[in-house]
């Protein structure tokens, strides 16, 4: 029987192979309908390979690792298929329960289970219906797992946890046209949140309050208080932009300015990205710097989780929150913090919670690919940026910007079809001031709670910084050919692009890493 010199080598092979297999199982089953019997066959194939491995007496390290890795991929892949099937079956049951009511005028009573998404023309409410009644008939109970997205009047007074009664017709979400011949599968996108139907409400009335989770409601109240303080102390579009930078409230930014941010490649600033979340986590750690280690971990993890929940618990935010908490765990336990391990563990935990985010949540995909670019592509880029000085972290920032943009470019072009030609200089100019913007924005909101005059000095500096960021987006976003449209193309080109990028990274690492 072979033995490895380092036990950690076996654990690394099993862990990364398991994550790869589990993710691949979910990915493949999203396109092909593998049943439980198929998953069982794949799992048994992995067990057979593992048995073969156990009976071998070879001491060849690479050969044994390949066998063990393949067995782990197969077994974990089977578990990924089973996990996705359970999720799919649950969603199918919810869809089937509401299907007989499609296209029929109904009255629905239910609880708003997510923060209302307030937009210029309408408000989107995610509702868990408790009772549904056809016209003139007795209301009938509905499964508590059902979710319906209700479109109602803008700037309604509905809040998270309210019980509402709405009239309208249920409908299955339909795909809609995107840019340059693209089609957005709205049904699959909503399915990641368990939403199976939509309803355009003719009227929606609040019939009760306070039915949601008390902790979530309290966190959303704190967030709403901060946003209100920002609006009272800062003019528009400063307040809307600051709300987007800190809380991801992108609907407060005017459409024309959003377009400039998109064309300049700065739109990630106003959609609470991993970059913003990393700044929040770093700020929490700095604030708790002198606390005892155990207290730092407890309060730090609690603050990061609380912020993630208040910010909507989106895929990007949760990925960054998981990684920040794992960094705290590593520090508390005295172990080194391995970013690839943390990223893989964060992905595994999120897929265990909701396997549908893998293919149906663009934020999940872009967030993880950007982080992989930061880990593996940016260091390669940094080696070739010798003309950029290290002073002020300029070379590191340039490498991080280029590396992440290279990583997400194929997927972004496939999804959106908007290629920004000015993204690099715009990001190099704007990103260094974002941490300062967040600091003064936070201080402005806090000071505003105690009085307008107290907030004026902080608001003044916030206004200057926000005006600078807006100016960068306006200047670069309005340049001729700042962004060019890319026609829709086949997804196979995305896979080819990433296969080529992975090949280059592996080749570079082998050439510059001594094993």
Compose a concise summary of this entry:
The chain is α+β, with helices and mostly antiparallel strands and 515 residues long.
As a percent range, the share of helical residues equals 55-70%
Percent of residues in β-strands: 5-15%
Average of per-residue pLDDT values:
86
* Total beta-strand segments: 12
Order of helices and strands: HHHEEEEEEEEHEEHHHHHHHHHHEHHHEH
Radius of gyration: 25 Å
> How would the global form be characterised?
globular
Strand order of the largest sheet: 1-3-5-9-6
Number of helices: 18
Spans of 5+ residues with little confidence (pLDDT < 50)? 1-6
Biggest beta sheet attributes: 5 strands, mixed, barrel
What does this protein structure show overall?
- The strands form three sheets. The protein has a five-stranded mixed beta barrel. The protein has a two-stranded antiparallel ribbon with strand order 7-8. It has a two-stranded antiparallel ribbon with strand order 11-12.
- It is globular, with a radius of gyration of 25 Å.
- With 515 residues, it is α+β, with helices and mostly antiparallel strands.
- Residues 1-6 have low confidence and may be disordered.
- The longest helix has 38 residues, at 61-98.
- The two termini are 24 Å apart.
- The chain is built from 18 helices and twelve strands.
Keywords:
single chain; 515 residues; alpha+beta; 12 strands; 11% strand; globular; disordered N terminus
